Write the structure tokens for this entry.
Amino acid sequence: MQRAPDRISFGQQIDLRGAGVKILQKEFSELLKEIKEATTDEAGFNFLDQKGNVAATFPVQKDNVDSYLTSPTSDIEILRGNLSPKYKRGGTKVQYIYEDSVDKILEPSVSPSGKVHVTLASGIQKDYDIVVGADGMRSSIRRLAFKESQDALKSLGQYTSYFTIPYEPEDGTFASWFNAPLGRCILLRPDNAGCTRAYLSIMASDSNRKVLENYHSLSTAEQKKMLRALFEDSGWKTGRVLRGMQASNDFYMQEVAQVKIPTWSTSNGQIVLLGDAGYCPSPISGMGTTLAVVGAYILAGELVTSIRAQIANSQDKMPKKLDFSESARLYEIKMRPFVEKGQAIIPGAPAIANPMTSWGIEVLLRVVGVVSWLSRSRIAKLFSWVGSFFASKEKEWDDKLDRYEFVKR
Ligand SMILES: Cc1cc2nc3c(=O)[nH]c(=O)nc-3n(C[C@H](O)[C@H](O)[C@H](O)COP(=O)(O)OP(=O)(O)OC[C@H]3O[C@@H](n4cnc5c(N)ncnc54)[C@H](O)[C@@H]3O)c2cc1C
């Protein structure tokens, strides 16, 4: 079920890494091929100084499994709007519902049918064996069914807006990261469709916290107006970016936050959270899509395994009542290490990369300059054992992924 009238065909660069890539390799090799053909071809990532000159550069690494150790640009970097249409629609047994959403949920223990009783915004009422809430960071399924998790959204104190502006040759092929005082950052990323994807990010501080925290209740026009006022004296290409923002029709603003809750399923396993709804790692982790893919794979794998076992042990062709508690329990256990790793961000982030003062920006640029130099210079070879240590840890982590048989051979 999708609240929007159709698949959402916009959104900026998202990364696919590690175990997420492995799952596609195994189960959806055609999809992975299509994704690789549609990557943004970003050549790397530059940090700019106050004059707009390159202070540190990180060319893309062609090994997507551990590339985030060496470059913010991943090998598999695709526009969100290009990824969603690539998912094939299910067969005739799958029903898609658009422009609707869940308004009320009754758990099986209190629902007359013994199933999950759902009331949709359109007024339709239905019973389901299992409800999977994959409705994003501000999940309404989480709000309705996980009453003890009302404070699940943990703000990281930053607000980001995404929109598309016309490409200009000066944008080149690298992403450009520009810091301005007061925790402001402008990021420009040329895409593979003749446009430049722009991000305006700002840290909440005493002077702007009230207005930023209120962003959710503002219209798009009001959000743009607020950002114009907050960014107009940022320097570099601010004028062009703000004009582009004004004209953009894909503007999207979001609080940078993580979702942390003790459990992703109700006690009988019949209401389950998946992806950002259960464990959003925030865009700064670059792991949101990977965790959503890994979560979907593990949850589907455990459901198939458990239901097959119940059918095999049943006297009837199909058990009268399916039990979902075991699949939910195993989903929790197997997914938790991936989530903990995906949500682990550098201590102090994102504030550390978005200083409040010019002096702080100077220090940041010196540090990333040294890191960039180390990663490209011969000295890097001296440190290569460190890299291979981390890479082998990554591999160990990915190898923890169970392999499921979805089609009985
Ligand atoms: C419009 C948009 C743009 C994004 N842009 C970026 C980006 O540029 N970079 C980045 O790293 N990440 C971005 N993300 C987040 C990224 O897509 C996710 O972190 C990741 O892919 C995990 O996906 P998800 O399916 O769990 O959540 P999401 O991708 O957030 O998908 C949730 C879906 O649920 C739908 N939905 C929400 N509430 C309801 C409801 N009440 N009823 C029915 N449907 C509902 C939404 O329309 C959406 O399609 C964006 C998300 C959205 C929705």
User: Anything to note?
Assistant: The two ends are 31 Å apart (CA to CA). The domain at 100-152+260-343 is CATH 3.50.50.60 (FAD/NAD(P)-binding domain).
